[in-house]
Amino acid sequence: MRIYCDEVMESGCPARQPGQRKLRVRVHGHCFVVNKDLLAQNCEYFRALFQSGMKECQEDEICLRCVGLLGFQVMMQVLEGGRPMLNCDQIVEAIECAAFLQVPSLTKHLINVINSENCLLMFHTASTFGVWDLFHNSALFIQDIYSDLKDDLCTLPKTLTDYVEALIPASYMAVCSHSPSSDELENFQRTVSYLDEELKEWKALTQLPSSASTTMAGVAVLDNKLYIVGGVHDVSKNIVQSGFCYNPLTNSWSTICRPNQLRYNLTLVGHDGCLYALGGECDHKELSSVERYRVANGHWSYVSQLPRQSASVVSAVALDRIFICLWKGRGASDIFEYSPEKDQWILETTLVRDQSYGLCMVPHKDNLYLMRNGPCNDFLLCVMDCYNVSSRQWTAMPGQYVNSKGSLFTAAVKGDSVFTLSRKVTTEYTIEDYKWKRKREMTGFGRIGSIYTFLMRLPKTTLPLAERSAASAPGQRSGNIDGHRRHLVRCVDNL
C-alpha cells in the first residue's frame, strides 16, 4: 500500500476497479481512496454509519480520529487480501483499529500472526481494547510456551496471568495405523495417546472405536476435535464407510458421514470450520478429487480438484493458508495454495532438487519447512529447505535432521518447538534462525506401523485410560474450567 502525506491515494487494487463506489477516508493528514462497499461488508462501524441516515452517508469524504494511520493501513491491506507480518507499532494500532471499527477479518489476521515475539504484546493490548478473541488466542499461545515466558509474565497484572494459568496447554498426540477390531474385548494397542512432557512418556487417552481404521486413513484436528476419515479394513483395501470424531472434553466418539467418493491414502486437512479430503486412492487408482465437509451442516461437497492425481498429499496450514506439496518429477516439487474464497489451487513456488521429493511439510510463523529424502534415496535420512511465504524465498537448511533413532516424516509444532517421534525416541527441536536445534529426547512411541501426530488441548484432569473409570464425568470437569475462564474474562473487563 502506498502512502503520500497530505495527498489523495488509492488504498489498493480493488478500489481502482470501475463501477465500485469510492470513498475518501482521511486519517491523520493522509487521505485513502477506498472501496465503500468493501468497508460496509467488513467493518461494523462503517456498516452502521452508512445505514444510519446521517449526513456522512451522502458525503464523499469522512475523517477518522479514533484510529491511527498504521492501524488503518494494516486494516486495508487485510481487507484487500494481504497477510502482512507486523511490527510492534503496527500490532498496537491494528488492535485499536479492530476494536473501534469492529473488523472481524483484521482480528482473525492478528490471531494468525501470533508468535513468541509478539504474544505478550498481543495479549496485553487486546485486553486493553477488549478484543476478546485475540485476547484468548494470545493467552493460549502463551500457555503453550509458558516455561519460556514465565519471567516476562510477572510484568503483567495478576488477573492476566491468572487467566493464562487457568487455560489448557496443547498436548502432543499420536496414533498408529490400526485396522478395525473384531475383538469383543478392548484392544489396548488401538489407542490415541498423548505425551506427558513432565514424565517424558506416552500415555493412552482413548481407544479407537472398534469399526474405525487408521490404516491409510485421513487424520486431522479441527476445533480441538479429532477426525478420522477413510482407511481400509485389511490388505484387500476394502474402505471403511463411516468417519469418526473424538471430542476430548466429553471423552466421546461420534460418527460422521463419509465423503461422496470412497477413498484411502487420502490427506485430511482441518481449516476454518471445514474438513478437506485431498486426493487418495480408490480401486488402486490415484484420485485428484477434493471434497469439503462443513461441520456446521454435516455435508460433503466437491470443490476444485488437485492439479494432478495424488495420494498421501503432503500438506500444512501456515498463516491460516492451506498449502500442499506435489511431486512434479525430475526432482521438482510444486507448492500450491488452496483459496477457499476462489475455490482454486494456485501455484506458489517450485523447489528443484536432484533425485528428491517432499516427504513432510511443517509450518512455523510465515515459514514452510519442507523435508525431503536425502542423497542416494536413503530414506533414513532427510534434508530440509525453508520457504518464506512473505518474501517468497527459499533457504537451504544446513545439515541432516534424522539420526539412527528417529524420523522427521511426521511432526507437529507448538510455539517455537517441533516434536517428532519414532518407536525409539520422541525428540523436541527448537527453531532458531532457520536452524532446528535438538532440545531434548523423551520416550519413543513403541508401536508398529505408520504414525499420525497432531496437537490437541486435553482437560487438565485427563487420566491414563486405565485410571479413567474411577474419575468423574469429563464434561463436568471441563465445564468447571470454562466457568473459571468466564470469571476471569469478567475480571479483565473491569481493569
Textual characterization of the structure:
The strands form eight sheets. Strands 1-3-2-4 form a four-stranded mixed beta sheet. A four-stranded antiparallel beta sheet has the order 7-6-5-30. Strands 8-9-10-11 form a four-stranded antiparallel beta sheet, with no helix packed on it. The chain starts with 7 loop residues before the first strand and ends with a helix. It is α+β, with helices and mostly antiparallel strands and 495 residues long. It is built from eleven helices and 30 strands. It has a domain at 1-108: Potassium Channel Kv1.1, Chain A. Helix 2 crosses helix 3 (44-50), helix 4 (69-79) crosses helix 5 (88-101) and helix 6 packs parallel to helix 8 (132-144).
Secondary-structure topology with pairs:
Elements (H helix, E strand, L loop, with lengths): L7 E3 L2 H4 L5 E6 L2 E6 H7 L1 H7 L10 E4 L4 H11 L8 H14 L2 H9 L6 H11 L2 H13 L1 H8 L4 H9 L3 E7 L14 E6 L4 E7 L9 E6 L2 E6 L12 E5 L4 E5 L10 E5 L2 E5 L2 E2 L2 E2 L3 E5 L4 E5 L10 E5 L2 E9 L2 E8 L4 E9 L5 E7 L2 E7 L8 E7 L4 E4 L14 E4 L2 E5 L3 E8 L2 E9 L7 E7 L16 H20 L2
Parallel strand pairs: 1-3, 2-4
Antiparallel strand pairs: 2-3, 5-6, 5-30, 6-7, 8-9, 9-10, 10-11, 12-13, 13-16, 14-15, 16-17, 18-19, 19-20, 20-21, 22-23, 23-24, 24-25, 26-27, 27-28, 28-29
